[in-house]
Amino acid sequence: MIAVIDYGVGNLFSLTHSLKKIGADSVVTNDKEIIKKADKLILPGVGAFGDAAEKLKKDGLDKLIIEQCNDGKPLLGICLGMQLLFDKSFEYGEHKGLGLISGEVLPLKDYVNGLKIPHMGWNSLKFYDDNPLFNGTAEGQYVYFVHSFFAKCNEGLSATCDYGIEVTAAVRKNNVFGMQFHPEKSGEVGLNILKQFELYNG
Amino acid sequence: MLAKRIIPCLDVRNGRVVKGTKFTNLADVDDPVKLAQFYSECGADELVFYDITASAEGRKIFCDVLKEAASNVFIPLTVGGGINTLDDFERVLNSGADKVSVNSGAIADPSIISNAAKKYGNQCVVLSMDVSLIDGKYKVFSKGGRIETDIDAIEWAKFGEDNGAGEIVVNSIDTDGVKKGFDINLLNAICANVNIPVIASGGAGSIQHFIDLFKTTNVDAGLGASVFHFNEFSIKTLKNKLKESGIEVRV
To answer: What residues of A are in contact with residue B122 (Cβ under 8 Å)?
Structure first.
């Protein structure tokens, strides 16, 4: 069973319906006991980093997620959920993340001179490792992005897309996965990525 | 690289898709859920659902249709029409919308843009504007293009960006429904003044119109309705032709 962690950030309609579509057994929850019992975790998120990190912390979910990941439980962070995996973010101040992957989150506008912000739309993937979640996805296939900040990783780079600079599109460190794009909004390609996460067994 | 987007727009009334020519003479076309699935399979990059009902009952039917579409179609969905308050944002977001487009509602109360951006994030807020050239100036119209306002379209676009809109839809009243091509001058004027994605609307009649749009402006997406609903050309054919012309698209 996949637990989609509900901490009051963003709209989970598409994510829950896409998990249903691929036949995954999933539950949307903030209940720590259910999260502990789940086989896998998804950390979603849309909005501001500081606010999201604060909400995770307030409920003690941050510590639980770190514990669960350190115990080897697979986790997929999506969009802001991916950014939260890193050490810190500079989105409106400086905020501490979960620190599961080494790196920091920076404003795109300081790096992509003259390009529109947010980076919104379908962009093509370039691979940097053999991430099992990309089984069945070919390099060059398009996925849907919408974000104004990006992760500069010191480790775990799995895929990028070209938006003036090479923007981190996916990361992976052992059992911890992150996608900057929205698999739940990326058509068949995205549904397959979610399916591969469901099938992943270490 | 970031692909240019092709976006079919579905005007929905009483649970059915309709398309206006110059905003009148509506004709029934198809079931919105089936049409949404069809477009998604054909390579549409995104869909716009536009609610043209006014009654509370119509709003409920619209949300039911939206929920069903969003449960079956996994590409971004933008919803517009009848968005006047944050409660309206909430209503359609809970029914599966990813982005919400606000038009007359923002003219009546411009603070809705910043309030919605704060609550739901910039990526969620689309400022949609109906524009016509009046005495050499681009003016914003409200109420589905029926009422002229004093608002300058370029200033309005900048205001939208400054207040947190994540995207702008520019619908030219002058080219809408006549299928003679997009309003290139208007679109260039808007693109020159904002740094957020711009979606062109109004005037799509042929594949060449989309090629011209992407070759001569910096817009991110082209929106079409009847050209797609009446299958004058398929989205697949359109995207292949765009690719042949050297335009980055998702095929």
So the answer is: 118, 148
Say yes or no: ipTM exceeds 0.85: yes
- CA-nearest residue to A9 within chain B is B120
* DSSP state at residue B78: E
Provide block-wise average pLDDT over 10 residues at a time, chain A (202 residues): 91 94 97 98 91 92 98 97 96 94 96 94 98 98 96 98 98 98 97 98 87
> What's the Rg (C-alpha) of chain B?
17
**Residue A85 · residue A98 · CB < 8 Å:** yes
We report the CATH number of the domain holding residue A114 as 3.40.50.880
- The C-alpha atoms of residue A197 and residue B187 are separated, in whole angstroms, by 42
Query: What domain range includes position A189?
Result: 2-199
Q: Is B11 a catalytic residue?
A: yes
Cis amide leading into A74 (omega within 30): no
Distance of CA A174 to the CA centre of its chain: 14
B42 near A CB under 8 A? no
Number of domains forming the structure of chain A: 1
Query: Alpha helices, DSSP H only, in chain A?
Result: 13-21, 32-37, 49-58, 61-70, 80-83, 187-199
- Look up tokens 């207040």; give the residue: B163
Q: Do A102 and A155 form a contact (C-beta atoms < 8 A)?
A: yes
How many separate domains does chain B show? Answer: 1
**Residue B200 structure tokens:** 């062109």
Which amino acid is located at B174 in the chain? D
